[in-house]
Amino acid sequence: MIKGMLDKVEKKYGGGKDPRTSFGIFAGVMGLVSNLLLVIGKFSIGFLSGSVSIMADAINNLSDTISSVLTLVGFYIAGKPADREHPYGHERFEYISGMFVSLMITFVGFQFLLTSIDRIRQPQSISFSWVTLIVLLLSVFLKIWQGGVYRDIAKKIDSDTLVAASKDSLNDVYTTIAVLVSTAIEGITGLRLDGYIGGAIAVYIIYSGIQLLWGFINELMGIRPDQEEIDKMKEFLSSFDEIVGYHDLLIHQYGPNKIFASVHIEVDDRWDLNKAHQVIDQIEEVFKNRLGVELVCHVDPVNLHDEQQQFVYLQLKKIITAIDPILKAHDIRFVSHNEENVLYFDLVVPSKYKMTDEDILKVIQENINKSVGSCLLNVTFDHNYLL
């Protein structure tokens, strides 16, 4: 059923310039309608039965309704093309709308926690009816269906916002089941669990809101890309036999589909500018067409024909590999001037590495003096967080 519905949406909008926006708006409308039905149903039975836990569950669905509105607005603005004020597009607005949703969910949770505490202090009986049970059961099935729609659309358009909405929908299933169980227990045994269940739901709402909020804040601050994405980029760079190597890969994300990267490409310093430009263009084209990444390359010429340079280069690589293969050196230059030798290079070190920069430098200095001879080291330590 869900697949057939999404196929119709894709057939209608998939050929457009921005199917992502169309799917996102469809998800927002679907969520708005289904959540409104849940709010009306639960508010009605909650008011008639006097159950604070059902009312809390209804407010949770009301926050989901407002979330759907924000999803609609978020996908609409995120789908706008780049302009003079926003040259990287508007896709990050999806994270902003998600952040507001998270704040609202957290606020609602705190309000109903206070209400539930009052109900625990002054317990009241709720009116049990089969209509209440039927409405709650129908809401469980509707939320399962809703979560499935969000999940499938999220996979199709790679949307963190809809992934969060899917998890929220499926988590709502558990809260509604808890309300259903407490209502049934009170109806059968007379045990007044309403305030406790309402409090548990409120705590859960607060936890979910804070968790979602933190996720969207990380996205806006610039979170580390998935390791799978990093590995794909490294794999493509390593596949170009013409280049000597690469380093300083940096990745910037301005939304799920707006990824920019920069990298330093090492090439033979005997190449002319036309050849270097041609190879760089090929690399950038591969990244754009196969990975959807806008790559900018910086050319680093490497001396491959000077015997002394090559000897020092190999010795340094051997020393660094012996310390730890994860350490990488680049931009290596050996300069002799007025009987003084200076070895310049950058050393890439993972974050929170087991050795300090000073300890690494000391080991390299001792071994270079043995294998190459006396020389000064001029090292730039690069603490790379993409390793």
From TrEMBL:
* Tagged with keyword Transmembrane helix: yes
Q: Which UniProt keywords apply?
A: Membrane, Transmembrane, Transmembrane helix, Transport
Q: Tell me the InterPro entries matching this sequence.
A: Cation_efflux (IPR002524), Cation_efflux_CTD (IPR027470), Cation_efflux_CTD_sf (IPR036837), Cation_efflux_TM (IPR058533), Cation_efflux_TMD_sf (IPR027469), CDF_Transporter (IPR050291)
**Bilayer-spanning residue ranges:** 21-45, 95-114, 126-145, 196-217
Q: Which Pfam families match?
A: Cation_efflux, ZT_dimer
Q: Which domain of life is it from?
A: Bacteria
* This protein's record includes keyword Transmembrane helix: yes
Q: How does it sit in the membrane?
A: Multi-pass membrane protein
Q: What is its main location?
A: membrane
Which cell locations does it reside in?
Answer: Membrane
Q: Please list the residue ranges annotated as the Cation efflux protein cytoplasmic domain.
A: 225-301
Q: Domain Cation efflux protein transmembrane, which positions?
A: 31-221
Q: Which family does it belong to?
A: Belongs to the cation diffusion facilitator (CDF) transporter (TC 2.A.4) family.
Indicate what this protein is called per its UniProt record.
Answer: Cation transporter
Its source organism is Enterococcus larvae
